[in-house]
């Protein structure tokens, strides 16, 4: 990544590509829960039918961090989802929103069989925008117990809209970080555990980090200057003890091999507990010992404890449907005080907990 000096009036910006919440896999959920809605036109129902269940997704994304000739930031991608048919059906519904899908022989996806099954031909495919589905009607039925693979390619806009795969920018020191002339780097991720799709996140950025590793790799990511100035150190120092506390409290090991936490300047929500990559509004994760208030430090400790509590409660054990999200938030809020108290026993956080709003942190409360 190259850096150029700009005049003071030049608005410096760096572009982050990020996906969170209902992000990539959220766009590509085949089926999670049974539907009680009418079967007449299932694509008009917001609840997915109970005929198919996803096994895994293999997704490739290429965000363009410079605008094209029309001033648009785009990303391209391809997605393979392998799924199992639970009940025979001639209909595939898959969440898809604001993507231009590549056409294959006049259809918006390719269907193939896995193993001995024979894949039906596609009769018709279209985008159902209101309910955000790609709808695929087949000429014959998928068979229960068989596995199939759905393949799509797409172009989307990396918009500054905090939804799906989106763009976030920040200014720093009148410098504009650019990516011209550099080869594209491909990053390949390990398969995730089976998880709710709203918890997936990835970030493309020029950030640096501070790190520590015991059993779990812990990293705090932020703007280079913020890391240089030590603003990530407090979060780093308390994350290890809080994770250890929750491991003992839940009596379950931390479920992942790493714990990343990242500070995003204009993140709309207080924080979001994406599994293994928690995203925070910058002021909630970073702490400047020279200028931050004690209240700020307390907020940082409590929110970190809240989000890390979700790594087990909410992520490892996930709600069945959104009407149970209060369980996620209520319990994470309760144990956040236990975690913060463990990290900072001299604060007596329990004496203040009555005054705090337990639902203030997590993004999904307002997104879903
Ligand atoms: Zn929460």
Automatic annotation (TrEMBL):
CDD domains: M1_APN-Q_like. The keyword Zinc-finger does not apply. Pfam families: Peptidase_M1 (PF01433), Peptidase_M1_N (PF17900). Residues 234-354 form the Peptidase M1 membrane alanine aminopeptidase domain. Keywords: Hydrolase, Membrane, Metal-binding, Metalloprotease, Protease, Transmembrane, Transmembrane helix, Zinc. Signal peptide: none annotated. Its cofactor is Zn(2+). One of its GO terms (molecular function) is zinc ion binding. Belongs to the peptidase M1 family. This is Uncharacterized protein.
């Amino acid at each position: 990544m190259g850096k150029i000096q700009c005049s003071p009036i030049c608005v410096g910006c760096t572009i982050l590509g990020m996906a969170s919440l209902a992000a990539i896999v959220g766009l590509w959920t085949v089926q999670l829960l049974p539907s009680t809605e009418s079967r007449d036109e299932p694509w008009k129902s917001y609840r997915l039918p109970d005929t198919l269940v996803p096994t895994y997704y293999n997704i490739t994304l290429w965000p363009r961090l410079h605008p094209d000739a029309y001033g648009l930031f785009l990303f391209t991608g391809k997605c393979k989802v392998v799924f199992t048919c639970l009940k025979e059906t001639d209909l595939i519904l898959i969440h898809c929103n604001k993507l231009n899908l590549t056409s294959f022989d006049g259809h918006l996806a390719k269907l193939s069989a896995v193993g001995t099954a024979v894949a039906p031909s596609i009769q018709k495919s279209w985008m159902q925008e209101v309910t955000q589905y790609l709808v695929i009607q087949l000429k014959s039925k998928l068979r229960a117990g068989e596995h199939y693979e759905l393949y799509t390619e797409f172009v989307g806009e990396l918009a500054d809209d905090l939804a799906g795969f989106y763009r976030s920018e920040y200014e720093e020191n009148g410098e504009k970080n650019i990516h011209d002339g550099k080869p594209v780097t491909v990053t390949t991720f390990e398969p995730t555990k089976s998880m709710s799709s709203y918890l997936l996140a990835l970030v493309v950025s020029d950030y640096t980090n501070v790190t520590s590793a015991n059993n779990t790799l812990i990293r705090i990511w932020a703007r280079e200057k913020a890391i240089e100035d030590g603003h990530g150190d407090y979060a780093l120092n308390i994350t290890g003890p809080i994770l250890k506390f929750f491991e003992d409290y839940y009596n379950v090991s931390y479920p992942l091999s790493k714990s990343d936490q990242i500070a995003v300047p204009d993140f709309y929500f207080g924080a979001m507990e994406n599994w293994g990559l928690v995203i925070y509004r910058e002021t909630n994760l970073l702490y400047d010992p020279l200028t931050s208030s004690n209240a700020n430090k307390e907020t940082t400790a409590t929110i970190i404890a809240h989000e890390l509590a979700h790594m087990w409660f909410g992520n490892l054990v996930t709600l069945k449907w959104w009407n149970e999200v209060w369980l996620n938030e209520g319990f994470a809020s309760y144990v956040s005080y236990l975690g913060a108290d463990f990290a900072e026993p001299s604060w007596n956080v329990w004496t203040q907990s009555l005054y705090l709003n337990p639902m203030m942190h997590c993004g999904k409360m307002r997104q879903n």
